[in-house]
């Protein structure tokens, strides 16, 4: 092992020890009940809630996918960053305060299926069961793909085997999630969010300095391909709309909006919004600038780059001391692991509350629910490792559409349930089913436009899914009986407490 690999491994080892240490700390700090393990006792500070939401949201896409998109497509990639920024801001503004208040009023709902069932007093349990199935299936596969990202990072950056990287990534995440639950996941997300932010500032800053500044880099890009500087290059109206529509997905992502449920007070939401949006904007700009500088750097050094999404790794290897390289690689792992831990906890919470407690042990004491939650973390991780065991596993293709699936199935349901008192259980069921089915058919139905273009390439699936789900909610609610007076009273209580 050479000095570079040793320096990188030292930095990564220190990072792993920090994550595990936070998990052990959270084990002794958190309340030993289901609300403490799955929701941190609703006591997250605004800073932790904001960075936890951001870190669990972005995953490796922030450091790998978005820079790669800028590298290959140019400044048109700004549209997707703009859509995400608008969507995240709207989520903080419209959903966060209402969901924080309403989930507590709705019989202290801990999971998203909990909230749906309690909000509409669904005695049939259909809302809880269907939403739990969606969460368990999508997130188990999503977790597998995230683990695969960790395996490939170890393989490409450290020369270690894919399977070793897979097990190391999963092992560290499972340890701190298993012991510390939501508090550990949120606290590690906070630390990981700080690491990701620093990486997104340091890498483009050093890259631009090496290239002679922003002006020299822009000139180099113009000489390579002037169209890379055209924000409308190759874009149609529907193409721009599809990129902006990524922001709609925020309303329905369980691993993100659960942070709103856990913040310690609705009065902390504005502070969390300012912190979260500042973090997000700086991180997105840094990611875009990394890809922008990367195109000029590759041209300048005459290197061959087969995969644009590895441009962050290129800068890590060539521009920094091994110890700093280790820190920057830890930033990629932080992005990957923060998402994995959040997904593991959401799935384990749903398995505990919406499957085990509902069907097997309705009177389960708090300690038993926590134990089942911890067992579920391990079981989901094992299944995810199995699914990710093949580096070329096809699960990655499914994950690319999970954002649209969650956004269409849950997004309108969450927003409208917080805004419209007349909405009822039938409308909720109709909206969830129509949204999910629309995305599945749009993506996997094999349908094409008259020009032979697949529908999802012509228009992002979340747009028709979100629209049709919203229509189904309104029609389903108006066509059936009004909610009970008790449900309306809870809605009014929520509005009073905002």
Structural key phrases:
amino-acid transport; Na/Pro_symporter; mainly alpha; 498 residues; proline:sodium symporter activity; Sodium/glucose cotransporter
Question: How would you describe the overall organization of this protein?
Answer:
The protein has 498 residues and is mainly α. The protein has two domains: 3-392, Sodium/glucose cotransporter, CATH 1.20.1730.10; 401-498, no CATH class. 77% of the residues lie in helices and 0% in strands. The chain is built from 21 helices and no strands. It has helices spanning 3-29, 34-39, 46-58, 65-73, 78-105, 112-119, 126-158, 162-211, 214-224, 237-244, 254-262, 269-301, 311-319, 322-360, 366-387, 395-399, 402-419, 425-444, 455-458, 462-478, 485-497. The model has no long low-confidence stretch (mean pLDDT 86).
In short:
By secondary structure, the chain is mostly helical. The protein folds into 2 domains: 3-392, Sodium/glucose cotransporter (Up-down Bundle); 401-498, no CATH class. The chain has helices at 3-29, 34-39, 46-58, 65-73, 78-105, 112-119, 126-158, 162-211, 214-224, 237-244, 254-262, 269-301, 311-319, 322-360, 366-387, 395-399, 402-419, 425-444, 455-458, 462-478, 485-497.
């Amino acid at each position: 092992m050479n000095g570079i690999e040793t320096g990188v491994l030292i930095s990564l080892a220190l990072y792993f020890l920090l994550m595990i240490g936070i998990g052990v700390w959270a084990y002794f700090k958190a309340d030993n009940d289901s609300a403490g393990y799955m929701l941190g006792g609703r006591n997250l500070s605004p800073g932790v809630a904001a960075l936890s939401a951001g870190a669990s949201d972005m995953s490796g896409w922030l450091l790998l996918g978005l820079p790669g998109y800028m590298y290959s497509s140019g400044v048109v990639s700004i549209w997707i960053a703009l859509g995400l920024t608008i969507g995240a801001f709207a989520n903080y503004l419209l959903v966060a305060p209402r969901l924080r208040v309403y989930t507590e009023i709705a019989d202290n709902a801990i999971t998203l299926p909990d909230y749906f069932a309690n909000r509409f007093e669904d005695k049939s349990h259909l809302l809880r069961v269907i939403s739990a199935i969606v969460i368990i299936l999508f997130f188990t596969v999503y977790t597998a793909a995230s683990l695969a990202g960790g395996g490939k990072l170890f393989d490409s950056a450290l020369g270690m085997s894919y399977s070793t990287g897979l097990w190391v990534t999963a092992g560290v995440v499972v340890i701190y999630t298993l012991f510390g639950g939501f508090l550990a996941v949120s606290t590690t997300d906070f630390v990981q969010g700080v690491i990701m932010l620093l990486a997104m500032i340091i890498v483009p800053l050093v890259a631009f300095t090496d290239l002679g500044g922003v002006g020299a880099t822009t000139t180099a890009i113009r000489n390579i391909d002037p169209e890379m500087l055209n924000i409308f290059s190759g874009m149609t109206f529907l193409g721009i709309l599809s990129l902006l529509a990524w922001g709609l997905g925020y309303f329905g992502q369980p691993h993100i909006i659960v942070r709103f449920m856990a913040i310690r007070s609705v009065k902390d939401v504005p502070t969390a919004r300012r912190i979260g949006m500042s973090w997000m904007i700086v991180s997105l700009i840094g990611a875009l600038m990394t890809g922008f500088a990367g195109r000029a750097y590759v041209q300048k050094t005459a290197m061959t780059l087969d995969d644009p999404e590895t441009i962050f790794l290129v800068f890590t290897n060539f521009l920094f001391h091994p110890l700093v390289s280790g820190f920057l690689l830890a930033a990629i792992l932080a992005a990957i692991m923060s998402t994995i831990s959040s997904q593991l906890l959401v799935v384990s919470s749903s398995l505990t509350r919406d499957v085990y407690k509902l069907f097997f042990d309705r009177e389960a004491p708090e300690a038993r629910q926590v134990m089942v939650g911890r067992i579920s973390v391990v079981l989901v991780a094992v299944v995810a490792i199995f699914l990710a065991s093949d580096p070329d596993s096809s699960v990655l293709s499914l994950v690319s559409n999970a954002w649209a699936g969650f956004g269409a199935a849950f997004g309108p349901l969450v927003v409208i349930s917080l805004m419209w008192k007349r909405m009822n259980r039938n409308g909720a069921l109709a909206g969830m089913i129509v949204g999910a089915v629309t995305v599945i058919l749009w993506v996997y139905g094999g349908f094409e436009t008259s020009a032979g273009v697949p529908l999802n390439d012509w228009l992002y699936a979340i747009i028709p899914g979100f629209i049709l789900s919203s229509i189904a909610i309104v029609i389903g609610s108006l066509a059936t009986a009004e909610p009970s007076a008790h449900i309306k009273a809870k809605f009014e209580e929520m509005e009073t407490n905002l």
